[in-house]
Amino acid sequence: MRAALLVTLCTPSRATRPVAGRSGGTPWARRPARRYERRRPDKTPLHKIASEHLESWLEWRDQAERPVPGYVEEELRGYLECGLLCFGFGRAVCMTCRTGFVVAFSCKGRGVCPSCNGRHMAQTAAHLVDHVIPPVPVRQWVISVPKRLRGMLADRPRAVNALTKIFFAEIERLLLAASGFNPAANTPLSARPRLGGISFLHRFGSALNRHVHLHALSDRRRLRAGCRRSRL
Fold first, then answer.
1. Domain range for residue 10?
2. Does residue 23 sit within a domain?
3. What is the spatial order of strands in the sheet that 210-219 belongs to?
4. Does one domain contain both 123 and 137?
5. Are residues 34 and 61 in the same domain?
6. Alpha carbon 142 to chain centroid distance?
7. Domain final position from 127, 150, 171
């Protein structure tokens, strides 16, 4: 068992917010902060199903000569330990009220754990909004490939990289054509308007089937001939 870790957190017991339309007196009102509640993943249906059937499922796959990849098994076993105090925890102390509580270690996975996935998504979205995507209109693009190609893309990163480049090149070509700007074939890239974008690789479909596809965000404004590069 991993040893417990002492962590000191600065958690104000009260938060302030302005009160609209208030005249005179203090223009701030105080409200109590939310009390920390430890999540209990072992009470969820997903955790119960995984804990009860993981070993038998792995054995069945081995007997069928279709063993589960090591990273999949590691992800599933990490999820079963995520958020449980018996697998390690940190002790936190509020600097205001001096109340102590414990926070279980997380698996930090990116495939199965709903809690860690939600945290990763929230942190990524906040980073993109605050530091990457400018205040311009954006459009979402999705590319899906035939079923016979999904298996090849699943374990060939170079093929995925090539698909991503082709995908953005076609988006850029489409927007250039819509803007009425048709550069000659020998026009250098530095003299053409360029498109900025962000792509995310998805490996599964809604039914957890193997479905490698890309979601992309790009500036949806039409590119102008005098504009060398979009803001995104």
1. 1-15+29-127
2. no
3. 138-144, 210-219, 197-204
4. no
5. yes
6. 17
7. 127
Q: Which residue reads 């590319």 in tokens?
A: 143
Q: Do 106 and 159 fall within a single domain?
A: no
Instruction: Assign 30 to helix, strand or coil.
Output: strand
Pairing of strands 89-94, 5-9: parallel
b/e code 73-90 from CB counts within 10 Å (16+ = b): eebbbbbbbbbeeeeebe
pLDDT digits (tens, 9 = 90+) for 30-63: 555 677 788 899 999 999 999 999 999 999 999 9
Give 228's DSSP letter. -
Distance CA 170, CA 166 (A): 6
Residues 109 and 178 in one domain: no
pLDDT tens readout for residues 95-142: 888 888 899 999 998 888 999 999 999 999 999 889 888 888 888 999
Distances (CA, A) of 3 to 74, 85, 179: 21, 11, 61
* Same-domain status, 198 and 120: no
Q: Which two tokens stand for residue 138?
A: 């954006």
User: What's the Cα-to-Cα distance from 205 to each of 39, 66, 201, 216, rounded to whole Å?
Assistant: 28, 21, 12, 16
pLDDT tens per residue across span 138-152 = 889 998 888 888 888
DSSP state of 155: T
Rg over alpha carbons for the chain, rounded to the nearest Å, is 25
Please give the tally of structural domains in the chain.
2
